[in-house]
UniProtKB/TrEMBL annotation:
CDD domains: MFS_MFSD1. Keywords: Lysosome, Membrane, Transmembrane, Transmembrane helix, Transport. Belongs to the major facilitator superfamily. The keyword Ion transport does not apply. This is Lysosomal dipeptide transporter MFSD1. InterPro entries: MFS (IPR011701), MFS_trans_sf (IPR036259), MFSD1 (IPR052187). Homodimer. Interacts with lysosomal protein GLMP (via lumenal domain); the interaction starts while both proteins are still in the endoplasmic reticulum and is required for stabilization of MFSD1 in lysosomes but has no direct effect on its targeting to lysosomes or transporter activity. Its main location: membrane.
Length: 451
């Protein structure tokens, strides 16, 4: 690498202004907001990156917010209802890996984002039409198509974030992404029942359900946002000379066999944690209403506290993790707190507000610390594939556990369901054991920037 390229790279990673000996920008590119070397420009890009997940998570949790309405209107039981979640996850057991590979090797991140956003739009449209045409099968197909885009779009978002913020405040960035995702889920949990009921008691329930789901369609990331995001990335790549810094290596299918043990341990922690959170969120409103004898609206509000708290806490926790650099400690703490929240719900009659607050903080802690760790142990040319594998394994767990959880509720009730979730968090080998193994295998993260 030439002395000039080395100095440019040093300037990029340190966040300092480019010196007079380095490449100057002219015109509008020289302004703070248009210069990719500057923090303000990166954060403008981050705003567009975060929009990827807002609409996706809003629509993903539509069934949870309308659980009773969907079950009553479509005439289905809890296990059939949970198929709306498992069918989202099943295809992604394989397709997330291929999606990540396609992002790395074929489409590139920009075209891949556009394609997978299109799947979201088509899937949510079919889901809404299924309600309108009184077809549970069409709703399932819609969730299937939606799943083809949703998880792969999350891979795009993670890859975008690493490209723009690697060796910087990466934990904060993932925390902010999580915050916007949770805001989308919170908005969904509280607004969807209101939209459903706004049409009055005399309106056709199929029409009411369909109109509520069409509202979700309006929140999906638009093609215009995808185009702006892509153009910013093209411009930044040219100015920052990212291509000159690449090694020229490309991902191959067999490279997955060479992933380090530490990366596979991250995958294991991911799946065993999330299967105790997302299926609970899906079934939580009915559980809270049943055990604590509350209204559905209040139960939705209580469950949405997980999202509200994580939306507020995630950026703050991301900064703390960046400052301390002890991702493993924070992952272990997140697991412990979540286990405590489930045990409170299962074995006490303490107000559910307490457990939901604990779970909201725990979810933020784990997500902020866990997802950036992939970038610590994976070469940049394999990032899309690595995140795709992580999403694939996560979706395998979610697909299986969603169906099992619905069956547990129908056959044994919510107490056994909570014990089931606690068992996942404990596991055959505890999460602490896995984290201690990770501590020896994962190299220390890049030096944290000053805040």
């Amino acid at each position: 690498m030439t002395e000039k390229n080395e100095s440019e790279r040093s300037a990029l990673l340190s966040g300092r202004p480019v010196t007079e000996n380095e490449e100057h920008m002219t015109g509008c590119g020289a302004t703070v907001c248009c210069d990719p070397h500057r923090a303000l420009h990166r954060y403008i890009a981050l705003c567009f990156i975060c929009l990827l997940s807002f609409g996706s998570y809003f629509c993903y949790d539509n069934p949870a917010a309308l659980q009773l309405q969907i079950k009553q209107t479509m005439g289905i039981d809890t296990q059939q209802f949970m198929i709306l979640y498992s069918i989202y996850s099943w295809p992604n057991v394989i397709l997330c890996f291929f999606g990540g590979f396609l992002i790395d090797r074929v489409f590139g991140i920009r075209l891949g984002t556009l394609i997978f956003s299109g799947f979201l739009i088509v899937g949510q449209s079919l889901f809404a039409l299924g309600a309108l045409f009184q077809s549970y099968l069409l709703m399932v197909i819609g969730r299937f198509v939606f799943g083809l885009g949703g998880e792969n779009l999350a891979v795009c978002q993670s890859t975008y974030s690493v490209f723009w913020f690697k060796n910087r405040e990466i934990n904060f960035v993932f925390g902010l992404q999580l915050s916007l995702s949770r805001i989308g889920s919170t908005f969904n949990m509280n607004i969807m029942p209101v939209i459903f009921n706004a049409f009055g008691k005399t309106a056709d329930p199929y029409f009411k359900l369909s109109m509520a789901l069409w509202f979700g369609y309006l929140n999906i990331d638009t093609d215009e946002n995808v185009a702006v995001r892509g153009l910013m990335d093209i411009r930044a790549s040219r100015i920052l000379k990212r291509d000159a810094l690449e090694t020229g290596e490309v991902i191959r299918f067999r490279d997955i066999l060479d992933f380090p043990v530490s990366l596979w341990l991250i995958f294991i922690i991911c799946v065993t944690y999330y299967v105790a959170v997302f299926p609970f969120i899906s079934l939580g409103p009915a559980f809270i209403a049943d055990k604590f004898n509350t209204t559905t609206a209040y139960a939705n509000l209580i469950i949405s506290l997980v999202f509200i708290i994580s939306a507020v806490a995630s950026p703050i926790i991301g900064v703390i993790v960046d400052y301390t650099g002890r991702n493993i400690f924070w992952v272990a703490l997140g697991v412990l707190l979540t286990l405590g929240a489930h045990m409170i719900l299962a074995f006490t009659f303490a107000p559910p507000l307490l457990a939901m607050c604990i779970m909201g903080v725990a979810y933020s802690v784990l997500a902020c610390a866990l997802w950036p760790m992939v970038a610590f142990v994976t070469p940049e040319h394999q990032l899309g594939t690595a995140y795709g594998c992580m999403q694939s394994i996560q979706n395998l767990g979610l697909a299986v556990v969603a169906i099992i959880a619905g069956g547990v509720v129908d056959s044994s009730g919510y107490l056994i369901l909570e014990v089931f979730f606690c068992a996942w968090l404990c596991g055959k080998n505890t999460s602490f054991t896995t984290c201690r193994q990770l501590m020896h295998l994962i190299p220390p993260p890049p030096s944290s920037p000053s805040h």
